[in-house]
Specification:
The protein has 386 residues and is α+β, with helices and mostly antiparallel strands. It has eleven helices and 13 strands. Helix 4 packs across helix 5 and helix 8 packs across helix 10.
Length: 386
């Protein structure tokens, strides 16, 4: 059914406290995978005023705490935190990483007569739509893109008065279920104490205009920049952060269901991460093949069980014959076990730090293997088979 409505999505920058944690957790994961591609990692991070705590379960090479500490400090320095309340050089580092539970390992590990099982029970969703060239919902694309260009400008030295912590929110107008304009925009950015709200607005507005279609900008009274008027103290000094608290930002901005499992800090044997990537990979290629404008896929798993317990597909077009055909194609042609997913997408690589901010989906696949789930190499398969 065609419909008219307004839909809103938000994003947060790499300097947001929760994203600082995601980046640290994925940096730790990458370090272990760089030394042993079969490492098992579940790393959680907490940040607050001049303090970083990492904790979780590891099975892999021995890495000294000093090396982990140096990694954490360099990650925070790269984000840009050199503030009194959170400084990469002065912060306190606490390491509570420990060995993985053998009770988990015994159910997950492959054996002579059993392939590797899922690392946990859970449901994972993949989604794609034809609203944007990246097959992602338009509100989330705009929300990510403005923060990415602001971060680039800050890091290049062009906008030295902006700080690392920022948030954005775009409300997009849909007519006949198609995005046609923007009803409101919210951008909040940490800034130097030397400038006021109007100066921050004047800095940010040109960047907003650069990431939205021409003529889509909302009225001035619906364009909010730092609505509280002041945002000098931010980041982990202004609010504590934890890994995995921005799961909607990481995925589809609320335009699709979410199974509840976070991604960052988890190695690809964890289906929370790998199965969500696989479901996105399939959904994106299905939409790119032109058989539908929107696709949602759900996969479900049980700990220690190799294959998914269920596969759900929604093409949003009431074509039951096509839906059944694609479901059969997925079941018959793709190995959706944890090992099958990892091998198809080549996930046992240190490729995860760059996923931690600005979304895990709608990105470009890269030569080092990162964002392999964004490739469009199955388009012809679905075109020919459906």
């Amino acid at each position: 059914m065609k419909d008219n409505y307004v839909f809103t999505s938000e994003s947060v920058s790499e300097g947001h406290p929760d994203k600082v944690c995601d980046i640290i957790s994925d940096s730790v994961l990458d370090l272990y995978l760089s030394k042993d591609p079969h490492s098992r990692v579940a790393c959680e991070t907490l940040v607050t005023t001049n303090t970083v705590v990492i904790a979780g379960e590891i099975r892999g090479p021995k890495i000294k705490s000093e090396e982990l500490e140096n990694l954490v400090r360099s990650s925070i320095k790269e984000i840009g935190y050199e503030q009194e309340g959170f400084h990469w050089k002065n912060l306190k580092f606490i390491n509570y990483l420990h060995s993985q539970s053998q009770d988990i390992a015994v159910g997950v590990d492959a054996k002579v007569n059993k392939d590797e099982g899922a690392g946990d029970q859970g449901i994972m969703f993949g989604f794609a739509c034809s609203e944007t060239k990246d097959f992602m919902p338009a509100p989330l694309c705009f929300a990510h893109n403005i923060l990415r260009v602001l971060a680039d400008a800050r890091k290049s030295g062009k906008e030295k008065l902006l700080g690392p912590d920022a948030k954005s929110q775009f409300s997009v107008i849909y007519e006949d279920s198609k995005p046609v304009g923007i009803s409101s925009i919210v951008v909040s950015s940490q800034h130097s104490d030397s400038i006021d709200q109007e100066k921050v607005r004047s800095i940010i507005k040109p960047y907003v205009l650069s990431v939205i279609p021409k003529g889509w900008v909302c009225k001035d009274q619906s364009f909010f920049v730092n609505p509280t008027g002041r945002f000098v103290i931010g980041g982990p000094d202004g609010d504590s952060g934890l890994t995995g608290r921005k799961i909607i930002v990481d995925t589809y901005g609320g335009a699709a269901p979410h199974g509840g499992g976070a991604f960052s800090g988890k190695d690809p044997t964890k289906v929370d991460r790998s199965a969500a990537y696989m479901a996105r990979y399939l959904a994106k290629n299905i939409v790119a093949s032109g058989v539908t404008e929107k696709c949602l896929i759900q996969l479900s798993y049980a700990i220690g069980v190799t294959q998914p317990l269920s596969i759900y597909l929604n093409l949003f077009n009431n074509n039951e014959k096509m839906k059944n055909k694609i479901e059969s194609l997925i079941k018959d042609n793709f190995n959706l076990s944890p090992r099958g997913i990892r091998e198809m997408l080549n996930l046992n690589k240190p490729i995860y730090k760059k996923t931690a901010a600005y979304g895990h989906f709608g990105r470009k696949s890269e030569a080092d293997g990162s964002f392999s789930w964004e490739k469009l190499d199955l388009v012809n398969f679905f075109k020919e088979k459906v």
